[in-house]
Amino acid sequence: MTQAADPIFGAAHRQARLLIVDDQPLNIRQLHQIFQADYQVFVATSGADALAFCQTQVPDLILLDVVMPGLDGYAVCRRLKLDPRTCEIPVVFVTSQSDSTEEEDGLAAGAADFIAKTASANVMRARINALITLKRQADLLRSLAQLDGLTGLANRRHFDTKLDAEWRRGIRSGSPLALILIDIDYFKNFNDCYGHPAGDACLQQVAKCLRAGFTRSSDLVARYGGEEFVCVLPETPLAGADAKAQSLESAIRALGIPHEKSKVPGGIVTISLGVAVAIPTLRGNLADLILGADRSLYLAKNAGRAQVKTLQI
Questions:
Q1: What pLDDT is attached to residue 99?
Q2: Strand 271-278 to strand 308-312: parallel, antiparallel, or no bridges (unpaired)?
Q3: Which listed CATH number (3.30.1490.110, 3.40.50.1400, 2.60.40.1930, 3.30.70.270) goes with 156-312?
Q4: Is the domain covering 3-144 a CATH 3.40.50.2300 domain?
Q5: Residue 169 confidence (pLDDT) above 80
Q6: Would you state the pLDDT for residue 98?
Q7: pLDDT score of 8 more than 70
Q8: Distance from C-alpha of 231 to C-alpha of 243, rounded to nearest angstrom
Q9: By the 8 A CB rule, do 85 and 54 touch?
């Protein structure tokens, strides 16, 4: 999810991505001609290439040939449905023959529909358009369920899912995973002084500023609960995570939101940040990363707040 470019509604306004998977150039050309005016059309000429493509650019729908050398269409579909990143992509088998056994196998593998290669262009467009519309509606509902209603950031559920997925990805890649836990300093005092409506407005301003501090699509900023926020930074070593946390602390300070009841000198809203970084392993524990960030945040608060503390797991 790319938060810097409206993660929830951005996809609804872009042209949908269609991936054609077929080992026959003639079939590819025919399908490309039918769909190129309405979609961003991408091509893979083997099952392995299709799976690799989906790890870098997740398409909105896949048109998949059944009979291919190496991985056939059924095997590709099954693998897509086992991967959390690709399991929601509708897969439509494009077949040269129609028999009940073939359709049963395809549906068992997770296919959304079948289209005969002999079908007219208008029929193909109508059926694919209908599936794309349903996919976008489902995506929107899933996205709304992952939003915090007050701040518009990802909610705790989305954070938990993202962190687990990045931990597993880090195990495969061997790259570091960073976590930043953030707390607004003396926020109870702020609410007591200015009232809860002002407190909500403060949370919204802080959330907007935090989100603006991230440009990588792989990063995530979420509301962790109350006045706490959390940031997930894949492939980020300790030095990079520390630098990002320092810039976030400065950015919130620069907002200059009045907070006369803060015990931090300056009379403005500030944040404390705890950073933890680990290289995920099969023997490692994701909970240790969360506890590490929490421990760092405790140290930042104990040292006077409005600062960053870090920990390498």
A1: 67
A2: parallel
A3: 3.30.70.270
A4: yes
A5: yes
A6: 65
A7: no
A8: 13
A9: yes
| Cα three-residue angle 271-276-280, rounded to 5 degrees | 150
165 φ/ψ angles, rounded to the nearest 5 degrees: -65, -40
104 is catalytic: no
> Burial level of 89, CB count in 10 A (0-12/13-18/19+)?
buried
What φ, ψ does residue 18 adopt, rounded to 5°? -115, 125
Q: Which of 102, 103, 227, 249 is catalytic?
A: 227
- Average pLDDT on 97-114 reads 78
Name the amino acid, one letter, at 301: K
With a cut of 80, say whether residue 143 has pLDDT above it: no
Domain limits, the chain: 3-144, 156-312
Backbone angles phi, psi at 178, to 5 degrees: -110, 150
303 band by pLDDT with thresholds 50, 70 and 90: very high
- Residue pointed to by tokens 């995920």: 280
